[in-house]
Amino acid sequence: MELTRLRGFQDLLGPDAAAVSLIEQRARAVMERYAVNEIRVPLLEREELFKRTSGETSDIVEKQMYGFADSDEAHTRIALRPEGTAGVVRAYIEAGLDRSDPEQRFFYTGPMFRRERPQKGRYRQHYQFGVEIFGRADPACDAEVLIMIDDIRRELGLTLETQISSLGCAQCRPAFRAALLEFGRAHLAELCEDCHARLERNPLRLLDCKIDTHLMESAPRSLDYLCKACRVHFDTVIRLIKEGGVAHTINPRMVRGLDYYTRTTFEVVSLSVGAQSTVVAGGRYDGLVESLGGAAVPGIGFAIGVDRMALALAGSGSLAKSPTAAAIIALGAAALPTAMLLARGLRFENLRVEVLAERGLRALLRRADRIGARYAVIVGDDEVARNVVQLRDLKASTQREIGCGDLGKEILAALRDE
After folding, report:
1. What is the pLDDT, as a whole number, of residue 290?
2. I need a labelling partner for 398 at 20 to 30 A (CA). Which of 187, 359, 389, 411 fits?
């Protein structure tokens, strides 16, 4: 039997892994500036948690969850987490923070699991970097979240489009829901099989359909049904992000794929990654904490689809691999300790270095060229005895002898001048 990876899963090697790490590193740096603290929650949760948060009619619950019965937990139904918010909210409540200190700012990163139809940018194991902010219901918090996302975009040098809308609140959404229900019944013959099943239970799911997109262009718009308070909230968010320099468009037909969203919702899309263009998504969920047994604490959050962001990064041409500054070539066992010490000294200078040994000089120089080394530092028995190295410029095809103590200074100066 040939052992290969499972369908819909991927290995991240070399540049692909580097792109994911870069996104996480840049996002973490932004979190530090925004005073957002890290939280780590389990990969496994009770299946019921996601049913109560995502909604019984969501694609996640109906089609995508990886669930099983755990015999060690009295056959409790367990699920691999399909998204990050539910686990963070559960942890927030379980720690008692919803009552003792409700204003909290968390970020998380890690894999999520959904049994989806795999394609480029959509995998059954995918990575997210997410933020959840609790205890703030004001539009300034919504605006800060959108500016935070734009800061991450700038850190990565990407051109992305921010789309924003509002789904209203418990007071005004029923009228929007009723209008969608009436629209769906009027176009019943044109709806797909999934929309037929969802129409009476949750007509908002019509707007999330990937099949009936053309029909939904004429569906009712959530922004036309906002109450006065929701309209003021939305207009304030728009004004604040304009003043904050966030380019955006208003998308009145946006609906998120999870049932817990209220008021502000948003997606950030890339025009360079194909069909799976949404790289960041999120919104406000003011009733979610209370629905899970916590206090009536508002919240807002977002998740970056790290895999899709990595595709956008690769397409932008801004993902430059760190060049290998030098290959330290040890000619013989006696030269190896000196080569290792020289490499360590260069690494202290934050230079990328490899040590090469146990082959002839010609083969080692070919290897140095293959890994893209800028310089080859050659150390043999004679060089060890005289405390020198042969510094070969692989770009200019020149070579000269220098003292071991001058190696770091020489390479750094040469790299600065290029």
Report:
1. 94
2. 359
β strands within 219-374, DSSP E? 248-250, 262-269, 278-284, 299-305, 326-330, 353-356
- Neighbour count for residue 242 (Cβ, 10 Å): 12
Residue the block writes with tokens 């899309």: 269
Token pair, residue 130, equals 């997410």
Instruction: Find all residues with CB under 8 Å of 7, minimum gap 6, and list them.
Output: 118, 124
281 has a pLDDT exceeding 60: yes
Structure confidence at residue 274 as a pLDDT band (50, 70, 90): low
State pTM to two decimals. Answer: 0.84
Per-residue tokens: 325: 């500054």
Q: 321, 322, 328: which is closest to 375 by C-alpha?
A: 328
Identify the CATH assignment for 15-172+226-316 out of 3.30.930.10, 3.30.540.10, 3.40.930.10, 1.10.8.60. Answer: 3.30.930.10
- The sheet with strand 388-393 has its strands ordered as 353-356, 326-330, 375-379, 388-393, 398-403
Query: H or E segment at 400?
Result: strand 398-403
Q: What does the domain layout of the chain look like in residue ranges?
A: 15-172+226-316, 326-417
Alpha-carbon 23 to chain mean position = 7
